[in-house]
Write a structure and sequence with these properties.
Layout (H helix, E strand, L loop, with lengths): L1 H9 L16 H6 L9 E6 L3 E7 L8 E6 L2 E15 L4 E15 L10 E5 L2 E7 L2
Antiparallel strand pairs: 1-2, 2-7, 3-4, 4-5, 6-7
C-alpha cells in the first residue's frame, strides 16, 4: 500500500513536489498572496529657504503604524505593518501572520529647527515639516 501511495505522489506531476497532493498549499503560495506594494516606498526630501520636508509614501500603511523620532540631527522614520493571511483549500485552512518593516533615516541640515517638527498624514503619505531656525 505504501508503495502505491508513493508511486501516486511521484506521478502527480505537480511542480511543487510529490507531497503537494496531500497539501494543496506551499509557503510560496502564501508569500505570493501578500500585497508587496507595502514594500515599495518612496522618501522625497524637499527644502526651500523656509522649511525642510520629508515626504514618505507608504501605500496601505495606517498612520498609527508610522513612527518618527529625532536623535541629534537625524530624523528616523519607521513603520511596522502586520498582516494576517488566510489561505485554504477544501480540507485545510492556513493562517500566516507576517510583519513587514520600513525604516529610513535622514540627516536634517543644521539650519532647520528639529524641535519644531510637524507631522501630518494625507492618504498614504506622511509629510514631515521642519521650519528654518
Amino acid at each position: 500500500m505504501a508503495d502505491s501511495i508513493t508511486k501516486m505522489l511521484e506521478e502527480s506531476g505537480d511542480p511543487r513536489g510529490p507531497l503537494s497532493a496531500l497539501n494543496p498549499f506551499t509557503t510560496a503560495d502564501l508569500l505570493n498572496s501578500v500585497d508587496t506594494s507595502l514594500l515599495s516606498n518612496a522618501v522625497d526630501i524637499k527644502h526651500d529657504g523656509n522649511e525642510w520636508k520629508a515626504i514618505v509614501k507608504l501605500p496601505g500603511v495606517p498612520k498609527e503604524a508610522v513612527n518618527t523620532r529625532v536623535e541629534g540631527n537625524n530624523l528616523h522614520i519607521s513603520a511596522d505593518i502586520e498582516h494576517s493571511i488566510l489561505a485554504g483549500g477544501p480540507d485545510i485552512t492556513v493562517e500566516s501572520n507576517q510583519t513587514k518593516k520600513f525604516s529610513h533615516s535622514v540627516v536634517i541640515p543644521p539650519q532647520y529647527n528639529a524641535d519644531k517638527l510637524e507631522t501630518r498624514f494625507e492618504n498614504d503619505t506622511t509629510i514631515i515639516t521642519i521650519p528654518k531656525t
